[in-house]
Amino acid sequence: MNDEINLKEMGNEDILELMQEDLYDGYADEIIESIKELLSRQIPPYDILIKGLVAGMEVVGIDFRDGVLFVPEVLMAAKAMKSGMDLLRPLLAETGAPIKGTVVIGTVKGDIHDIGKNLVAMMLEGAGFDVVNLGINVSADDFIAAIEQHNADILGMSALLTTTMVYMRTVINALKDKGIRDDIIVLVGGAPLNDDFAEDIKADAYCRDAAIAVETANKFMELRKGK
Amino acid sequence: MNPLLQLLENGQPILLDGAMGTMLMDAGLEQGDPPDEWNVLYPERIKAIHRAYVDAGSQLILTNSFGGTRFRLEMHNLQDRVYELNKAAAKNARSVSDDVQQTVVVAGDIGPTGQLFEPMGLLTFDDAVEAFAEQAKGLADGGVDVLWIETMSDINEVKAAIKGIRSVCDLPIVATMSFDTHGHTMMGVSPANYIESLREQDVIAVGANCGTGSDELEKTVQIMRETDPNVVLVAKGNAGIPHVVAGGDIVYDGSPELMAEYATNVRDIGASLIGGCCGSTPDHIKAMAEALGK
């Protein structure tokens, strides 16, 4: 905690800006303090989410995409954001704040790599999505059950291995067999993937990194709402 | 004298082997199956892959133990068989090496745990050291000549692996990381930073493996050479980039010719230990052997 900063003396806009800086530096305690201060001033939770946390994570996402920040910094930022979200989430629900969409996400069967996938999950949550994270080693049946239970808009699948990425096709085929493929946006990611692979397995898009995953999810949700 | 140190003294580049994982798939390993268990289920298949590399010209072969820490084996409920599976991996490679006239170094392959260290994740340094020690013990008892840490992203994990190995044996250690993110590792380690961080560590060679294409790997090794003109360097690049072909199979687009060119490029940069990673086959290694005048 920086003793030189006195939140009480700061304007709302300045605190929101400070939140963005604290998020960038991964300072969870400071984020909590700022949110509490803003809430005490009757600032709507949704404004704190969008102008503080989401705006802050946007900067983190851009610098991650550009190679200024790497996974450790982004994970610490996402952790700080999560602490903030834990405080805001019940209030957001109470006030009926809009949710961008629901994402079911997981690492496919046979694969235990979840660093990148968790990063995407946290960044999506930071961007205002409701995220259901199924973890690792997720089967087609488990993906489908979660999609149906949560009425998901987006399915995100991750794999780190060339040997496991092919399971994504199995999941997409299972969605087709269920007749729900066209009801859901399928985004895929992971180190060995590329655009050609995503096209070949009939996913909607390949996302090279977490920042692009958020951009792509936003874009598809806008298209979907425009329908 | 240790056979790797002996080969290094000759001053000629040493040809390593190629991929294990993609070869196992071709040999019938199903997606999601634990490759490490094949050391005891199908030792003959593992030996055949080692043998194919030796026949192609490999002077050093890596054991089939990349996922051999308890953290990785846990996914397949094999976490109680770390010692057994790693020892078997070492014995398989050892027997192939002992079968031929020429010197073939057996390197005990150690990959990342797949876990994140505190505070980003839950893994403590001490737990990592213990897991690597357990794996290294199996490999050492199975008869490897060196321990080979690879595909690392986090410098602390490299240090934990070195410490773990040193707690069970005195064999030489080689350690490489995967530089696949804007010229850095996923965790943000630059090639120069890596060289600096390992100066005080007990390793005989450092370098890069996997990553993206072989051209990127050449750049990485070049930076390492510029950072330290004397350090013994490893270059172990992928055979291009994976693509999907009709039927859903994955192929790497790097031809043997491309890998042959890569081999001479990294030799000219000053790499002493040269091999292939994902997607490279005995055909690639053969082409590299010819290019390097083996």
Which SSEs are present, and which pair or pack?
The complex is a heterodimer of chains A (227) and B (294).
Chain A: H1 12-25, H2 28-40, H3 45-65, H4 71-94, E1 102-107, H5 115-126, E2 130-133, H6 140-150, E3 154-158, H7 162-165, H8 167-178, E4 185-189, H9 195-200, E5 205-206, H10 210-226
Parallel strand pairs in A: 1-2, 1-3, 3-4, 4-5
Chain B: H1 3-10, E1 14-15, H2 21-26, H3 38-41, H4 43-56, E2 60-62, H5 70-73, H6 82-98, E3 105-110, H7 125-141, E4 146-152, H8 155-166, E5 173-177, H9 191-197, E6 205-210, H10 214-227, E7 233-237, E8 242-244, E9 250-252, H11 256-269, E10 271-276, H12 282-291
Helix pairs in contact in B: 4-6, 4-12, 6-7, 7-8, 9-10, 10-11, 11-12
Category from helices, strands and their pairing of chain B: alpha/beta
The computed structural class of chain A is alpha/beta
What is the β-strand count of chain B? 10
| Quaternary status | heterodimer
Per DSSP, the total helix count of chain B is 12
Strand count, sense and barrel status of the largest sheet of chain A are:
5 strands, parallel
Overall geometry of chain B comes to: globular
Throw out a few tags for this protein:
heterodimer, A: 227 residues, alpha/beta, 5-stranded parallel β-sheet, 10 helices, 10% strand, elongated, B: 294 residues, 8-stranded parallel β-sheet, two-stranded antiparallel sheet, 12 helices, 43% helix, 16% strand
Task: Please provide a written account of the structure.
With 227 residues, chain A is α/β, with parallel strands linked by helices. Chain A has helices spanning 12-25, 28-40, 45-65, 71-94, 115-126, 140-150, 162-165, 167-178, 195-200, 210-226; strands at 102-107, 130-133, 154-158, 185-189, 205-206. Chain A has a five-stranded parallel β-sheet with strand order 2-1-3-4-5, with helices on both faces. In chain A, helix 3 (45-65) packs antiparallel against helix 4 (71-94). Chain A is elongated and about 60 Å long. By secondary structure, chain B is an alpha/beta fold. Chain B has an eight-stranded parallel β-sheet. A two-stranded antiparallel sheet of chain B has the order 8-9. In chain B, helix 7 (125-141) links the parallel strand 3 (105-110) and strand 4 (146-152). Chain B is globular, with a radius of gyration of 17 Å. The chains are: A alpha/beta (227), B alpha/beta (294). Chains A and B meet through helix 4, helix 7 and helix 9 of A and helix 2 and strand 8 of B.
